[in-house]
Amino acid sequence: MMDDPLDAIAACTAGSERSLLARVMAGVFTLLAMGGIVVAVAAFAYGRNAARQSFDRILLGAANDIAESLIVQDGQPVANIPASAFGLLALAENDRIYYSIQGPDGAVLTGYSGGAKTANLNDTLTSPVFYDSRMQTERARFVTVARLFSERDFSGAVYVTVGHTLRARNAMALGLTKGALVMTGFGGLALLLGAFLVIRSSMKPLDTLTRELSQRNPYDLTPMSTQGPAEVAVMVHALNRFMQRLDRQVDAMKHLISDTAHQLRTPVAAIRAQAELAIEDDAEDRRVQRLERLVKRTRSLGTLLDQMLSRALVMHRTDNAPPASIDLRDIALRIFEERDHEFLAPEIEVGLSIGEHPVIVIADDISLTEAVKNMLANGLRHGVSPVTLGVSNEQGCAMIWVQDSGLGPPREVMSTIGQRFERSAASKGDSAGLGLSIVHAVARAFNGKVLMEHLDTGFRVTLSFPAQEEESLP
């Protein structure tokens, strides 16, 4: 019984699916088999053609020898068949032979008078005529040549027909085909073995990758080595990117859990203590004071939870939500029209400064909205009225910024602002220290940066991205 469900899945998969090597070898074997069939057909056709040409030449040589031996005596053609003609015909071993010499009127002068279909002798033959027919019950091949005479006592053509059965031809064709198939078979086996060795060698990087993955600790998400063939390197790059995203998700979850455990312990304990003291205290004035502290602690705890969940949401969406074209003016206008600032800081005046032309960036709408909300909340909490939320496009950079009329934090602490749970000396007690941390995370996710500037008119925090063309907006 397998303890690990992944091992069980792997075992089932191994039993139900063929390996990549088996699939490739099956494809190579199929291609070689199809090639063998084509070679066999071509070899048989070549063998038949070669046998026909070879034995046709034998027939023609024998017929010409017989035709050359013809003479005219007493006004009649006479055949003195040479032994060389029969010697040529004897080259077709185990074949039955046929010869016939006919006069101009078709009468047989010598040889066989039947048993085979003869060529049409009505026309004057100017070249040898080959044809297929039957010799009694067997298929045979014949050739007819003409010998012309023009003498005083005889004038006309004498026809010589020679043939033999096809046993030697077929044997030669089959022999050539078998020889070609044997050589092709050995060559195919050699190619199949060579293909197996080459494919097996080529798949060693996959075996190495599989072994490394199977032996790797489940909690080890460090990048793997990309050394090897380009195809394997592409797969390893994709696997590394996936592990990086998974690592960021795991880190975000760990941070959320550790931050929750670390940051909520003190506020919850303080709230419980204030509530118990308020219940036990009989003095009305001190009870009211303790209830006010309890409300303040509760508000601070709510702010902390909001920012922790916002940071977790941003970290999740930067790895999972596909970026899209966004007009920063829409982000600023939406946040301003929600008017949350009237509840967060009703005593602070908030203005909106956006232009007439679109300011396009490639980012995630929800993540960018959370970042800008935290920028505005940070300005309302630590800044001086009035506070302005603005959008601008300067030197190829699309910017969304929050500016207040105060002096801002000291320059010596600006390098640490934006780290998790980092509070400056000017921070109020209900600050969670996560606002600008969310802003920095969104900037890193979409190739942006966070700028903090002391201006003549106040302190400005800017979220800057590479500007996009207006046509990229859907």
Structure notes:
The chain is of the alpha+beta class. Helix content is 52%, strand content 20%. Strands 4-3-7-6-5 form a five-stranded antiparallel β-sheet. Strands 9-11-12-14-13 form a five-stranded mixed β-sheet. Helix 2 (20-68) runs antiparallel to helix 3, helix 7 (265-280) runs antiparallel to helix 8 (284-320) and helix 8 packs antiparallel against helix 11.
Question: Approximately how much helix is present in the residues?
Answer: 40-55%
Shape: rod-shaped
Order of helices and strands: HHEEHEEEEEHHHHHEHHEEHEEHEE
Structural class of the secondary elements? alpha+beta
Give short descriptive properties of this protein.
alpha+beta; 14 strands; 52% helix; rod-shaped; 474 residues; five-stranded antiparallel β-sheet
